[in-house]
Specification:
Two copies of one chain form a homodimer.
Chain A: H1 12-30, E1 35-36, H2 38-45, H3 49-56, E2 69-70, H4 71-82, E3 88-93, H5 97-104, H6 106-110, E4 113-120, E5 129-130, E6 133-137, H7 141-148, E7 152-155, H8 162-171, E8 176-179, E9 192-195, H9 198-211
Parallel strand pairs in A: 3-4, 3-7, 4-6, 7-8, 8-9
Antiparallel strand pairs in A: 1-2, 5-6
Helix pairs in contact in A: 1-2, 1-4, 2-3
C-alpha cells in the first residue's frame, strides 16, 4: 500500500484518534480479524462512524464499499502516514521507578520506540544495568547520542531535574522530547515537547465526580 | 477564599490548562514566590496572558491590578474549583512495573490522590507487600471497596486484562477510572474513564519529526 497522505496538515485531535485506531486495529489483528467496517471500528474506538471515515480519508481511499477495511492494510497505512512504520531510537533520562517501568514496558519496543540509552546524574545509579543497558552519566548524553543514533529523548526525572535533562537532550541535537516530569520545560523552538500529565486526567475525573455529586 | 466557580461547565481544554497552572504555581510556591502576574505565569505555562486571565475568570476575580495574583490563594481557588482540595482514595489494579512506579510516585499522594488498595489476579503477586499495601485478589475488589472507601480506580494491567479490571471496578460501585492499559474499555454511561496514552504522544512526536524532515 503506497497511498500517500492527502494532506500534510493532520490536526492534533486526528493524530490522537489515529493512535486509538491503531491500538484497536492491532487488538483486532491479534484476535484474527482480517476485515472491519467503519461502524464497528468506530464503536470499538468510542467515536462515530462518520468521524472514522473522515479521519481515514486523510490517507486516500481504503475502504471497499460493502466490505470494509483490510485490518493489516489500514494499520500499515496509518503508521506510514504518522511516520511510525520504522524504528525510533530513544534515550531515557532518569533511571528511577518510572524510568524502569517504561524500560520494561514491552509495548514501546513492539511499536518501534526502542530505548537504546539510559542516563542518570546519580553516581549510585551510573554503571547499574537496567533492562540490559548500562546507566550512563547524563553529562555524557551529548557525546553518546550520535554513536547511539538517538532521535528522541524521554524524561522521567523528578520535576526539579527536568530542565537540566532537557538541556542535555537539546545539546545532544535531539529534537523530540517526551516528558513525564510534572514540570514545564523550556526548549528552543525547533524542539518538540510532549507532556504526559497524569494529573490533568486525575483532575478531570475529580472535577466530573464532584460536579456529578457522587463524591 | 470562598469564591465559587462562575460556571459549572468548565471546558476540558481549560481543565487541562488549570492542571498546568497548578503545577507551575506549586513550583513557584516551592521557590518562595508569593505573588505572580498573569504574563509571567502565562509564559511559564506556555500559553498567552489573555488566555490565563480568561481561564482564571471562571472562578471570579483574584488578580489585583498592577500587583498580580497571590500564589497560595490562586492554587487553593483552582483546586477548590476542580474538586482536588481533598483526599481521593484510589484502588490500583495491576501490580506490575507500571503499577509499582505509580505507587512509588510521591506526587500522587502529595496531591491528594491516595492509593489505598492494590489488586492483581496473579496468585504469585497476591499477598505481596507493595509500598506498604498487601496485594489482594482483583475478585475481592467489590467486597473491599466500601471498607476502603475507594472513589477512583487505576488500571495498570496488560491490555488483554483491562476490560476485566474495569468490570471489577464498576462492580465495586466506583465511577471514575484512570487507565494506563493500551486498550479501549467499555463501561456504563455513568462511569468516567480517562486514558493515559503514551503512544499518542510518541506518534505526535514521530509525525512532527517526519514532517520536519529531521528524521
Amino acid at each position: 500500500m503506497t497511498t500517500a497522505p492527502k494532506s500534510k496538515h493532520i490536526p492534533r485531535a486526528t493524530i490522537q484518534r489515529l493512535a486509538i485506531y491503531v491500538q484497536v486495529l492491532e487488538n483486532l489483528a491479534r484476535d484474527g480479524v482480517e476485515v472491519v467496517s467503519s461502524n464497528p471500528l468506530a464503536e470499538a474506538c468510542g467515536v462515530n462512524g462518520s468521524q472514522v471515515r473522515k479521519d481515514l480519508a486523510y490517507f486516500g481511499e481504503f475502504g471497499v464499499r460493502g466490505v470494509g477495511y483490510r485490518v493489516d492494510v489500514l494499520i500499515a497505512a496509518i503508521k506510514n502516514a504518522l511516520g511510525v512504520n520504522r524504528e525510533w531510537r530513544m534515550a531515557l533520562v532518569g533511571a528511577g521507578n518510572l524510568g524502569r517501568a517504561i524500560l520494561n514496558h514491552g509495548d514501546f519496543r513492539a511499536r518501534g520506540f526502542n530505548i537504546v540509552g539510559v542516563f542518570d546524574c546519580d553516581p549510585f545509579k551510573i554503571g547499574e544495568i537496567m533492562h540490559g543497558l548500562e546507566v550512563r552519566c547524563t553529562d555524557d548524553l551529548p557525546a553518546c547520542a550520535p554513536e547511539l543514533d538517538i532521535q528522541m529523548g524521554i524524561i522521567t526525572t523528578p520535576p526539579e531535574r527536568a530542565q537540566r535533562a532537557a538541556n542535555h537532550i537539546v545539546e545532544a541535537g535531539i529534537t523530540s522530547i517526551l516528558t513525564f516530569a510534572p514540570a514545564r520545560i523550556k526548549v528552543p523552538e525547533h524542539v518538540h515537547v510532549e507532556y504526559v500529565d497524569f494529573f490533568h486526567h486525575l483532575y478531570a475525573l475529580a472535577f466530573a465526580q464532584t460536579q456529578g455529586g457522587r463524591a
